[in-house]
Known about the structure:
It is built from 2 helices and 10 strands. The chain is of the alpha+beta class.
Amino acid sequence: MKKGQGAMEYLMTYGWALLVIVIVGAALFALGILNPATYQQKRCNGFQYFTYIDQAATATNYTLHFRNGVNDINLSSMTVGVVTTNIFNGTGESENFTLTVDGNAWDGVTWIGQGKEVTINYGPGLSLVSGAYDDLSITVKYDVKNGIQGNTDTATCIGTVV
C-alpha cells in the first residue's frame, strides 16, 4: 500500500465519523435536548427583602407572586422592564394593577403584614414578545411601617411569555 492511500483511508474513516458526530449533535440541539433554554426554569434573582414564589407572563400581562419580609409594608409602585405604574394612588387601585394579599383584594391603605403572600398582576399595557424572556428587571417600591420610606427591591426575572 502506498503512503498516500493509507493517509486517504485514514482521513476518510475519521472524516465520516466526525461528520456523524456533528449530525447527531445538531439533531440533539434541534430537538431541544442540548438547548439550555429547554431546562431553564422561571425565576427571579436579586430580591433582598421579598421572597420570590412564582411568576407568569403573557404578551400584555405580568404576574409576580412573592412573600413579604419581616416588617409591615405598604406598596407604592412596580416597574416591569421599563414600564412603571403606581400601584395605588391613595384613593384606589391603579387601572393597570390588581393586587391581592393572601388571596384577598388589597385596599391600598392597610399595611401588608410580615410573611403575607402578595400577588401583583400588571396589565394590560405591557408588551412582551412571545417565547423566552431573560433579564426582565422587576422593581417593587414600598414603605416600611414605622421605618424607612421609599425602599426599593429589584430582581432580574427569567421565564417564558405564553
